[in-house]
């Protein structure tokens, strides 16, 4: 298999037309499920004015949590399907997410109705509704028949209920993915280990290439100073995540937000410092995106981060991935 890095990022087009933006693209996400004691509306009030480039929001939150796409001054808005917000699980509670997310009805019709009401001048990509009762091929057919002509389209690969997502389960229908602008996969459904997830992304890129599907791959939920560069090196073009709201992003990795805030100013109210860190996190995202673009042209792992330890770790894991793909 060819090296996943032997390529420049796939252009991100909306509706098959002009290039909306170019990858690699690191996208800050918003969700009513992000923070336990803070509403998504409050989060937007404290951060939205700093967001530029691109953003990901949920159709569910547009409908029920007063998330207005018009407040963003960006080049691209990705509207997720709402599946994440309607999922209330023990893991989400443990990591601090608000547990009260499945209290409102959500369906394909409500999803379509919410999308139809969006009125913005910037390009919008709508992510397909989760239909995990269907096999991949049938999910694709359903997504094609229900996509909005107003917006670009992203198909989110989902495993059928009770099954794991595999490249083999996608292969038979892979050619049909050319009808979407973006092909997506959630980080957690790409594998049980981080290395399995990287391998899945590399194999997905190879599968799309084999079927002449020249579309960007979006990894949902992979935002992290260590993991994000590796997802791009494996073959992804877009990565998003809520980590920028939950953690402090630095050259050495992602750190527990309250502890990092206390280190910055132990005498100041923690909430005030935490908002300052989140705003700084967005600047960090921009820096990460620029660094990855530099690497894709230079091949210098040192350009990915100023941390020697982190760049060495990225180089090591990337080398392991390339060797495993040659077997």
List the helices and strands and how they pair.
Elements: E1 12-13, E2 19-21, E3 25-28, H1 40-47, E4 54-58, H2 59-64, E5 76-80, H3 83-86, H4 90-94, H5 108-116, E6 124-127, H6 136-146, E7 152-157, H7 167-171, E8 182-186, H8 194-210, E9 217-220, H9 227-234, E10 238-241, H10 243-246, E11 247-250, E12 253-256, H11 257-264, H12 270-298, H13 308-325
Parallel strand pairs: 3-10, 4-5, 5-6, 6-7, 7-8, 8-9, 9-10
Antiparallel strand pairs: 1-2, 11-12
Structure description:
It is a single chain. It is globular, with a radius of gyration of 19 Å. The chain has a single domain (12-246), classed as Queuine tRNA-ribosyltransferase-like (TIM Barrel), CATH 3.20.20.105. It starts with 11 loop residues before the first strand and ends with a helix. α8 crosses α13 (308-325). The chain is built from 13 helices and twelve strands. 40% of the residues lie in helices and 15% in strands. The model is unreliable at 1-6 (pLDDT under 50). 45% of the residues are buried. Strands 3-10-9-8-7-6-5-4 form an eight-stranded parallel sheet. It has a two-stranded antiparallel sheet with strand order 1-2. It has a two-stranded antiparallel sheet with strand order 11-12. The protein has 327 residues and is α/β, with parallel strands linked by helices.
